[in-house]
Amino acid sequence: MNFSVHVDAAPAEARPSPMRTLVLTGELDHGSAPHLQRALEDAYGDRCRHLVIDVSDLTFCDSTGISVFLGARRALAARDGGVALAGLNPRIERIFRLTGLARAFDTYPTAAEARAALPAS
Amino acid sequence: MDGSGRVSAYWPITDDLSVLRGFVEVYAMQAGLSGIRLQDLVLAVNEAAANVLDHAHGEGDVEAWHDDRYVTIEVSDRLGLLVPAHADAGNPGVGTLRGRGLWLMRQLCDEVRITRGPQGSAVRLRQALDDTPTPG
Fold first, then answer.
1. Which end of chain A is more exposed for a tag (fewer CB within 10 A), N or C?
2. What's the predicted TM-score (pTM) here?
3. How many CB pairs (< 8 A) connect A and B?
4. Which domains does chain B have, with CATH numbers?
């Protein structure tokens, strides 16, 4: 399965941190969504409140992946935080637009811009 | 290939949907689909097969055929939980985590039809080969 989740190790995100960046690569689907779910649960365990998810190298996303994104949005909203999505490529943007996700999340051209827009913690 | 409904490709459903997507993409491309409409059909088949994994014990298969007007992909299970009315599923909206597969298939394909018989249920996904949306 061609999918990976990379936790961005920016210095500002030393654990435990209210902010975390996840960089997704490859195809997010029924088989790979549990990998993302585990990375999200790690982040919740580290008291993460603000999540930036870089999807610029995500080549496929199905409704299982969408369920995971929406679950993250719900989990972090319950902590007065949120999820920002960065780097939507045309393929991902189409599925996000069709399903209404593009409106449900704050989206940014890059992860750096998404981080810069977060409230100071 | 002759428009008679003859099955011209067959794949079993396995846990690895990326393999199935690859088969479907090559098949539909060779039939004449390209671009977004090709990607949309591949995603719709993925959704139907994911439903088989989630709701029908993962037991099912995929058949494909085409003529000079349509590519048709049929995703069948052995459980038969789907009935024709499920094809009219509404958009669950972003407040609901799951259950958007069938609605999404309808956004992606020209035609989504569910049949149910003694063998189980089948979701038939059809994409026209030209860009003109087809009625009914």
1. C
2. 0.91
3. 58
4. 9-128 (3.30.565.10)
Query: What is the domain extent for residue A72?
Result: 3-112
pLDDT digits (tens, 9 = 90+) for A19-47: 999 999 999 999 999 999 999 999 999 88
Whether residue A38 is contained in a domain is answered as yes
- Enter the ipTM: 0.89
- Residues from B contacting A (CB-CB < 8 Å) are 15-18, 21, 36, 39, 43, 46-47, 50, 53-54, 91, 93-94, 96-98, 100-101, 104, 107-108
SS (H, E, C) chain A: CCEEEEECCCHHHCCCCCEEEEEEEEEECCCCHHHHHHHHHHHHHCCCCEEEEEEEEEEEECHHHHHHHHHHHHHHHCCCCEEEEECCCHHHHHHHHHHCHHHHCEEECCHHHHHHCCCCC
